[in-house]
Amino acid sequence: MDRQKRWRGLPLAGLLLVALVLAACESTPPNVGVVETGARPTPTAEVDSVPSPAPMPTRTPTAAPPPTPTPTLTPSPTATPVPSDTPTPTPRPTFTPTPTATPTQQRVGQRVLTEYVPWFSRPPSHWHWRIRDGLSKLWIERPEFVVALVQTPFFSSESITSPDSSDSARNRNDTYGLETLLEIAALDEDLALGIARLDWFADGIPDLEGSTDSEELQLIELLLEMAENNLEVARAVLGLEWLADGVNLNEKEILAIFARTPENQTGLMLRVMGEPWLRDGIRPDRGESLEHSPERAAIDALGIIHGASPELALRMVGYLDESLPLLDVGMLSGVVSAVRADLFERLTAEPWFTDGLDASERAFLLGVNVALFADMLDSHDLRTRTIRLPLAGEVRLWALSHKQFRDTELEVPSEIGTGSTIYTPDRPLDYMEQAIRKTEGIMGVPFPATDAVMLTLLGDPPRWPGTPGLHYGTHFFVNDVGRLTFHETAHYYFHPNVFKETWLIEGGAEFVRYFTSLKLAEELRSDPGLFVSGGPYYDNSGTNWESTWKRASDAFAGCMESTGAKNIQDMIDRDLDCSYSFGRYLLLGIYDLIGEDAMRSALRELYLTSEELFESYEPHLTEEEIYRTFLKHVPAGKEEAFRAFYRHAHGGPFIDG
After folding, report:
1. Radius of gyration (Cα) for the chain, nearest Å?
2. How many helices (H) and strands (E) are present in the chain, helices listed first?
3. Which of 222, 187, 186 is nearest to 201 (CA)?
4. What is the per-residue pLDDT across 186-232, written as a single tens digit (0 to 9) for each?
5. Which residue, of 56, 220, 268, 275, has the greatest Cβ tally within 10 A?
6. Which phi and psi (to 5°) does residue 401 adopt?
7. Contact at 8 Å (CB) between 562 and 578?
């Protein structure tokens, strides 16, 4: 058949196709799946677009419809409706809940847990519902753990059971805390149960002053971080007794170190956690050189030493006294100084270092620093003396220099910063003893250190930047053994961890220095070694009250003129140097007004109150509280004179309030 005949035959073929379709519709039910999934019939438009030959109905010799539909009209078997008893289609496994009976099992878990936690049957708040549903689901997989968990005191604490706090941050933090605990349980169930039994977790997790966060919530998150990073360390932390009742700021810092412990320091940290000085609790910060607590300072130093020598770090732990005195903390700092000065190998090769460290060797390591380490290893002079004080008992004194102390007078160059050439004998222990005795006497409080260490640079241009003296908490440095020893010794009492106001910190140290000068002038005039011409107080101006008061008054007037400040209240934060002069003037004036006994009792109360606040992590005394402490000790009949002088020297609205 040629092409023209084929095209003429198409209309007849189309009629035959229509007839066949109608017949099929009468004999079979409608099939909605044919169009969507069956073999699609070839429409005429599709034939027009395909020039190649294709099977056509014109090939049938008769117009009678065939007994069966042609293959092109027969729906594909995949399009045939599936009988109801055929298990098709099968749901994908990813969409099937696992296990399929979870709702039923969850209800069983709820009934079981209700036996231990009554409110599981009727949770009082949406936070309780969240806890109930989470534990009920977890019960399906870990029933023994969940049952043990709900029997801890946490679930019976007033915090979590009180319906009155149903929408409070307290219930919210309880929920968040429990969810964090469950994350820890995924790593170690015993660790999670141990944390749940700690007092601070067991009594619920309150909010902090209405904020959206909580100290205890931060703590549980820190423990999770620790468990994720080093599970062995996290387990050992539970053995620290001070963790049981919550932690203070310094204790949290220690835990943060443990949370970051690298794997190669695990042995060191486990050893540290077994030491009495860490297990007994973490003390507040001590001294300007310790940015953190002594325990934190020791652990930081041991970590640095471990980087240089893991074996030495473990050995150094064994050297530490169970009370961790500042002498031991300073010893570790000295070894760190050697590491940072690239002198570690030289230090560790010293015979005196390798065979253990006695008290004098610890004092040496405490006193040195990076700039002086090389010189000190070559040559140094260390002198010591043990004295007994009326209040503190035994205190060891240590005087260290990289040059030999001499018993004759030594000229100290003016470049040191004193403003003139002075003459100072090499009698460091005498100066230290007198300074400590007189300072304890005026403060009325035991000297707050068992070891006092002084480092000095006799006869050399200063390599210590910017200051003739500096107190570090663990020890102090002076480049003038005479007058500065008294000032720096007073900083064992007047330091930033106890007092906040600079005028009281520096003015207090200056007051003690002048008071000591007056007392020594009265008691020790027969000893010219302590009061050489032009000696510790330049022109002996501190040896009588008239010269002392004139010197203090002139300095006060000079600072008023240079700063424009009328008094301490007006001067605060303006000029650090004038804090010395303003504070000294105020305290010497109070001393002159109220007398030595009243001054001693006032300073004693100020120190003890401030120390108690410091130990309790409470804010420092305010300016008004300092004023009212002094006022409390003013003898009868002198109150108005005291107010007038305090108003003049200090100022402040609280004086007349």
Report:
1. 43
2. 32, 7
3. 222
4. 999 999 999 999 999 988 887 655 444 578 888 999 999 999 999 99
5. 220
6. -145, 155
7. yes
Token pair 């035994």: residue? 394
DSSP letter string, 484-550: HHHHHHHTTTS-TTT---HHHHHHHHHHHHHHHHHHHHHH-TT-TTTS-TT-TTTTTGGGSHHHHHH
Predicted pLDDT at 106: 81
Residues 547, 245: Cα–Cα separation, whole Å: 56
Is the CB of residue 400 less than 8 Å from the CB of residue 364? yes
Q: What are phi and psi for residue 619, nearest 5 degrees?
A: -60, 155
Max CA distance (Å), the chain: 151
Coil, strand or helix at 573: coil
Contacts of 301 (CB under 8 A, 6+ apart): 329, 332, 333, 335, 336
Q: Coil, strand or helix: which one is 95?
A: helix
Q: What's the rounded Cα separation, in Å, for the pair 313 and 129? A: 51
Q: 42, 92 in Cβ contact below 8 A?
A: no
Structure tokens at 447: 């000297």
Q: Which pair of structure tokens corresponds to residue 344? A: 């570690």
Q: How far apart are CA 504 and CA 481, in angstroms?
A: 23
**Alpha-carbon gap, residue 318 to 197, rounded angstroms:** 32
List all residues 6 or more positions away from 500 whose beta carbon is below 8 Å from its beta carbon. Answer: 620, 621
CA distances in angstroms from 282 to 242, 358, 368, listed in the order given: 8, 25, 26
Question: Rounded to 10 degrees, what is the CA torsion of 464, 465, 467, 469?
Answer: -20
Distance, in Å, from the CA atom of 28 to the CA atom of 25, rounded to the nearest integer, reads 6
- 3-state secondary structure string across 239-256: CCHHHCCCCCHHHHHHHH
2-11: pLDDT as tens digits: 433 333 343 4
> What average pLDDT does the segment 643-651 reach?
95
